[in-house]
UniProtKB/TrEMBL annotation:
<keyword id="KW-0472">Membrane</keyword>
<feature type="region of interest" description="Disordered">
    <location>
        <begin position="241"/>
        <end position="262"/>
    </location>
</feature>
<dbReference type="GO" id="GO:0005789">
    <property type="term" value="C:endoplasmic reticulum membrane"/>
</dbReference>
<keyword id="KW-0812">Transmembrane</keyword>
<keyword id="KW-0732">Signal</keyword>
<feature type="region of interest" description="Disordered">
    <location>
        <begin position="191"/>
        <end position="214"/>
    </location>
</feature>
<dbReference type="Pfam" id="PF21203">
    <property type="entry name" value="ECM10"/>
</dbReference>
<feature type="signal peptide">
    <location>
        <begin position="1"/>
        <end position="18"/>
    </location>
</feature>
<comment type="similarity">
    <text>Belongs to the EMC10 family.</text>
</comment>
<feature type="compositionally biased region" description="Gly residues">
    <location>
        <begin position="196"/>
        <end position="208"/>
    </location>
</feature>
<keyword id="KW-1133">Transmembrane helix</keyword>
<keyword id="KW-0256">Endoplasmic reticulum</keyword>
<protein>
    <recommendedName>
        <fullName>ER membrane protein complex subunit 10</fullName>
    </recommendedName>
</protein>
Amino acid sequence: MRSALCALLLALVACSAAVLPVEHSLDGGQSWSKAGDLTLALARRGSSAVLDRVPLTAEQQSALNKLAAGGGLYRLRLPSAGAGSPPVAASFPVHCLAASASDGGLALDLLDGGHVAGIALNAPCGQRIAAELQLPASQAVAVRLPTAAPEVLPQLVPGQVAGDAAAGLGGVGLQQDAAAGAAGAAGAAGQQAAGEGRGTGQQGGGKGKPQPDERTWLQKNWMLVMPLGFIVLNILGNAAGPQGQQRPGAGGAPARPAGSQR
């Protein structure tokens, strides 16, 4: 019935299907036995996988219960993509087996070509272990496909040529933005150079043309005027001295007392 359904899907939605044998180990990887068949269907609108388990024998059920009592690991493996390559394997605590046996409890990781990359536990597991583990006859397995990697844009280096930056990014709008950025940078550099030239001219002009001195002649030459003033005052003082001494004798000889005349 399942094969007929898959054949119908192949005809309707052009799906590709594959059946992969799955093995498990109940003794720590010392021996392996068939656990079931994994039917993988890849389609354009989605992929699906179903694990059909092989019923456990009484001996295998006893080994599984013993493994659960000892707290060991449950191991799975299935063929890998390339021929001759080691199989894809997974292991998890046996108390997680009940969670892994539910629909979606296991996840199958695929590569771009649909090849199997890995299988892993896909559900949280509890701490309690049942007295006797019972595995379902069939369960759905989640399929995880690779996602496209995000596009990484190159980083623009300051001062990079606008044409090269725009060509690396690709796009007319980016070329215009890069050209505008380069023009703005050139304009800013020109303004800075012009400002430096004006500052240099102002400094040179200040040295060649000193500011005019608005002081008066007396304010500029007061140190020369003061000695000349002292000299003039000294000359005037010396000239006034002899004139004061000659004034008493100018009217004749000094008068004598009347009794002294003969």
